[in-house]
Design brief:
4 helices, 71% helix, 0% strand, single chain, 106 residues, binds zinc ion
């Protein structure tokens, strides 16, 4: 039996961290454009990187929230596709994993 509280703590900490990082990204994106034209091109590239980070972060947040829901439901650690238990080895690497390794790779 896996220790759900252990993973709940990890997932909540990760969620807090991601939310903090995302609000930093938003603050950066909200900055008014630099009046210097040459600076602006560089800034635009930076914005794309930041937006990319934001997208990846949002996706991870959604997966973590889904994992926390599964902890509430008592289905955490069970593959959503085949119903087999997800190995702790995998959960230690990817605490928000919804599928076992076989289903994820298949
Ligand atoms: Zn599976």
């Amino acid at each position: 039996m896996i220790d759900q509280n252990h993973y709940a703590t990890i997932l909540r900490n990760r969620l807090t961290e991601l939310n903090a990082r995302l609000s930093e990204v938003e603050t950066e994106l909200d900055k008014p454009p630099d009046p210097d034209v040459e600076e602006r091109a560089v800034e635009r590239e930076g914005d794309e990187v930041l937006e990319g980070l934001g997208m990846a972060g949002l996706r991870e947040i959604r997966m973590i929230e889904a994992a926390l829901d599964r902890i509430e439901d008592g289905t955490f650690g069970t593959c959503v596709a085949c119903g087999d238990p997800i190995s702790e080895e995998r959960l230690n690497l990817v605490p928000h994993a919804a599928r076992c390794r076989n289903c994820f790779e298949g």
